[in-house]
Each structure stands twice: as structure tokens, then as C-alpha cells.
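## Example record

The block below lists the input lines for one assembly entry, exactly as stored, with component labels intact.
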Amino acid sequence: MKAAVIVFPGSNCDRDCAVAVERSTGAHVEMVWHGDNGLPAGLDLIVLPGGFSYGDYLRCGAMAALSPIMAEVKAAAQRGVATVGICNGFQILCEAQMLPGALLRNEKLKYVCKTVELEVTNAQTRFTAGYAGRRQVAMTVGNGEGNFFAEPAELDRLEGEGQVVFRYLDNPNGSARGIAGIINATGNVLGLMPHPDRAFEAELGSADGAILFQSALASA
Amino acid sequence: MRAKVHVFLKPGVLDVQGKAVEQALHGLGWPSVDHVRVGRTIEFDLKAADPAAAEAEVKAMCEKLLANTVIESYRVEVA
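Predicted C-alpha cells for the full assembly:
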């Protein structure tokens, strides 16, 4: 099993993601610099980590979405490689138009950093199969722009097609319909604001995040 | 030529920053202030054959980078 964590200037959860994936799955993890023009061969999982890529200049994730490596990430995702964006990584996936919608300023203008309870609204994705039978999980959020937005028709479509994967039980940032994570139509690109990388062993307060990485690599 | 791009959240998108500024202005004694929107202006020089060509270029830049049209609208001035 092989995974890559993309490192953008300003990423700050890249090491956390690498350790989380290694310890929860045993996969070999390579760090890939955003300016690189190629991904390692034979990848089973790509992780876009949290942080403040490019200092959140212009809009969160806007500059990172145009990094050279993102053309490779898009091509790999189109080939079916499992790709997950966490927090800033989710913002990057939206800016890169690999996922619909956008992340706005939190409703209360406040940076929210706490453990949240999530409902797994779709446990039939390749990232969430391990949550089957466990409808509620705990992870940590840490964001100032985590307020998911999409037009009502798009929200209806996402809900109708099972693309809403995680929902907050107690919405911390004003996200439309309490959405915490969504998946693309082909089921191999996931974006979520909560951090599975900060919840991969009991010592961190929750080990629920490990299940996400294990599920993603279970078919590898 | 000099381009000015004004980017704002679309009318239907809640501008929480605008709301906070509005409340602060009310507190400072301007109670009639309403519908505050906070946006950004991006200015730059560019070379183009004429203003129409410049405007077309700048609009393409807005679509690709300067605005996220899922949530933002933009207005271009070229002089």
C-alpha cells in the first residue's frame, strides 16, 4: 500500500497526515512537494492536508489549486485513485473544481477548534465502509472558513445522490444543511472539514479517524 | 492599461464580515447603515490592443482565479 501527502507552502497538517496514515494502515507514505510535476508510481491514496496553503491569499485554497502538482492529482483522481482533502485540502478540492460548492467564512466569524460529533450519512463509500453500523463518530475541527456553501439545487442533488458523507450533529460553523464532508459522483474524491488525522488513536481523544484511512486503503 | 477588479460575495450569499461591520457602524452612531458588503479590489497594469480586448482578458482572469463564481460576482473597470 502506498500513499502520498501533498505539501503546499503553508500546509501544517502534512506530517500529522503522514503519521496518521502510516500508523493506522501501515502504508508507505511519501511526501510530495506542490511544485513537483509528477506523483510517485503506484499510489493507492492521495491526501491533501490541512493548513493555510499560500497563507490563504485571495481565497483559501485558490492558489494551491493552481499548483503544478494539482494537474497530476486531477489526472490521478480521474484514473480512480482515492483522494481525500482534509480542511484546507477540502477547500483546495473545491477551488480545483474536483468537488462542488465552496467554503465560506464561519457564520459567527470565529475560528472553531473543538471535537465534534458527526453523523456518517453514507457508509457505503470507499472511505466510510468501515463505519458501517456505527452511525456516529467523533473528530476534531479547526477552521475559520469551514462553512460549506452550494446553491439549494446543488445541495438537493448532493443529498439525493448520496454525496453528503458526513454531517455535523451540532453545526459549528453554519455549513449548509450541516454538511461536514462530501464525495464526488464517481466516489473516489472525498473532502471534509473535520480532521481524521487528529483522531487516529485513543490518546488523541478519538480513534475514529483511523477507520477512514483504513477503509480508503482496504481495497488496495 | 490599468485594470480594477471588484469582487464581492453574490447577493444570495451571507456576508458575515459585512454584517459585523454593519453592526459596528450602528454602534458608532450610524443606525441607518444597511446592507453592508465587504469585498476586495485587485488592481494591475496589463498590455492590450484596446480597452475591449483588455476587458475580455481580465474577465478570463476573473473566471480562472480572481473570483470564485460559485460564491462571488465581479465587476471589471479598464482605463
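The interface with chain A takes residues 9, 13-14, 16-17, 20, 65-66, 68, 70-71 of chain B (CB under 8 Å). Residues 1 and 63 of chain B are 20 Å apart (CA to CA).
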